[in-house]
Structure formats: C-alpha cells, structure tokens
Specification:
145 residues, alpha/beta, five-stranded mixed sheet
C-alpha cells in the first residue's frame, strides 16, 4: 500500500535515511557558531578603511596584537594594561622572547592619530623593530564608508 517493507523479512531498505545526516550537520553548525567568535584575536575595534597599497608579505610568525579601544584602553592580545609602565614591560618581554615576531597595532578609527602614535612610541621604546597598522581593506568596486 503506502509503505514498503524492503522486500521480505530483514531485507535491506534502499531508501536514504537523512535524520542522522541532519543531526551531524546541526552539531557542526553549532560548533562553528561557538568557535568562530573565539578566532578573533585582540579586542574588537572598528578599523579605518584604506586601499591596500603594498603587496602582502607572509609573516614569518604569528603577530603580537596590540589594540586601542575607543575609550583609549590598551590591550596586548586580550589583556588590558591601564598602566603604561606595565604595558611597556610586557612588550619588552614579548619582543626579547622573539625579536622577529611582527607587531600588529589595531587602533579604533574614532581615535585621534596622536593616541595611536603614543602607543607606537611606547612600542619603539620597548625596542620594536616594525609596527604594522591594522586596516579594513576597501575592495575594488565597493563603495567607501
């Protein structure tokens, strides 16, 4: 009538059972939704927009992320440093442990350049060789902000 029994007792059904597939896909979706926000390093700041002028070089190692939030708080990775001296000491430790490690400075676009420059000067005093500034790249054909 409406259901097939597979041809006989204990026969093999040649119908696809999608329930386990849907279960696996939903579990993977949940895992990706939980893990994706954790992949972002440093603090969440709104970066200034600019066109990429220079060819991107592959970094030799994972960069050290410095972030400056709109309320002028300074972070190394996820650690906040309200005291400039402690911030400088942390940078010196990081730089002496790996002198080739690049530094990426993410400053919020609402900050004055002077605030970002203060952090750059502190990093220079901590013997940083080069500091890269984080930007939001403007794609070709896309309208600017």
């Amino acid at each position: 009538m409406g259901m097939s029994t597979g041809g006989g007792k204990g026969g093999v059904k040649n119908e696809i059972n999608v329930t386990p597939l849907v279960d696996v896909v939903l579990v993977l979706l949940i895992i990706f939704m939980v893990v994706t926000p954790m992949l972002q390093r440093g603090k969440d700041v709104k970066l200034p927009a600019a066109k990429q002028q220079k060819e991107k070089e592959k970094p030799k190692s994972d960069p050290l992320i410095l972030s400056i939030t709109p309320d002028k708080k300074i972070f190394v990775e996820q650690d906040e440093y309200p005291d400039i001296e402690n911030f400088k000491q942390r940078l010196e430790r990081e730089i002496t442990s790996n002198e080739e490690r690049p530094i990426l400075l993410k400053g919020d676009m609402t900050l004055a350049f002077g605030e970002v420059r203060k952090v750059m000067n502190i990093a220079r005093q901590a013997r940083a060789r080069a500091i890269q500034l984080g930007i939001e790249e403007i794609k070709e054909g896309a309208g600017g902000p």
